[in-house]
Specification:
The structure is a single chain. The protein is α+β, with helices and mostly antiparallel strands. The protein has 3 domains: 70 residues, no CATH class; 66 residues, SH3 type barrels, CATH 2.30.30; 51 residues, no CATH class. The protein contains 7 helices and 10 strands. It has a 5-stranded mixed beta sheet. A 5-stranded antiparallel beta sheet has the order 9-8-7-6-10, covered by helices on one side. A hairpin with a 7-residue loop joins strand 7 and strand 8. The longest helix is centred in the C-terminal third of the chain and has 17 residues. The chain starts with a strand and ends with a helix.
């Protein structure tokens, strides 16, 4: 049973994710299969089984957070890369494994070693061996294009706050300390300034004394 939270920061992603969930048999807990809301209401949709809820109606602990891009990605067909027009220079994510397979698991980031124009060419498993020491074959229908977030998670690059965020960020959003795009809110900035004022109280006092002395001299 699916139990995940999809980050939909734009109107387009909010619409497309809902449509795909409806097509897969899911619906909103209260309104069914009617398009509802916008990212401004909270840019997350919780899908559990066939029930969709807003971020305000679900428990956050233990949930899987993914991007709209990842959710909307479709696996390839049981054909060669050439037949499907696949860009083999890109990274791919394993979306389907099989019993007894010790080389790949769901979620692994892979990169093709060489395209032999078969349905199951050899790939490097970048997640397990970034230095490309281990490779094995896997069918194209068990893969899809990797999202930038998945690539960054393995390769180690840091991106902006428009990506799916950690549980801490989601809690901050619910409390009004982050905006819909996960940027710091005005209320959060005021709180941070108050923390800094306490942290640098000594320096503030020293600066105050300097300004007072300067004002007295100018009288």
């Amino acid at each position: 049973m699916k139990d995940l939270i999809v980050h939909c920061p734009t109107e387009e992603s909010w619409y497309k994710v809902q449509v795909k969930m409806f097509e897969e048999g899911a619906g909103w807990s209260d309104t069914g299969k009617g398009l509802w809301g916008s990212p401004k209401d909270g840019p997350y949709i919780h899908l559990k089984g066939e029930t969709m809820k807003t971020i305000w109606e679900c428990e956050l602990e233990g949930r899987r957070f993914i991007s709209a891009e990842e959710y909307l990605q479709e696996p390839f067909e049981d054909k060669s890369a050439k037949e499907q027009g696949i860009d083999t220079s890109r990274y791919f994510t394993v979306v389907q494994s099989y019993r007894g397979n010790k080389y790949y698991k769901i979620g692994d980031l892979v990169q093709i070693e060489i395209d032999d124009e078969s349905k199951y060419p050899y790939f490097w498993n970048i997640t397990k061996h970034p230095e490309k020491q281990s490779h094995n074959s896997i069918h194209w229908y068990r893969l899809r294009y990797a999202t930038q977030e998945e690539i960054d998670a393995v390769i180690g690059k840091k991106k902006g706050l428009t990506q799916p965020q950690s549980l801490e960020y989601i809690k901050q959003y619910q409390a009004g300390l982050r905006n819909g795009d996960m940027g710091v809110s005005g209320e959060a900035k005021e709180f941070i300034w108050s923390l800094l004022a306490e942290q640098f109280n000594k320096e503030l006092t020293e600066e105050a004394e300097k300004r007072i002395k300067k004002a007295e001299k100018e009288k």
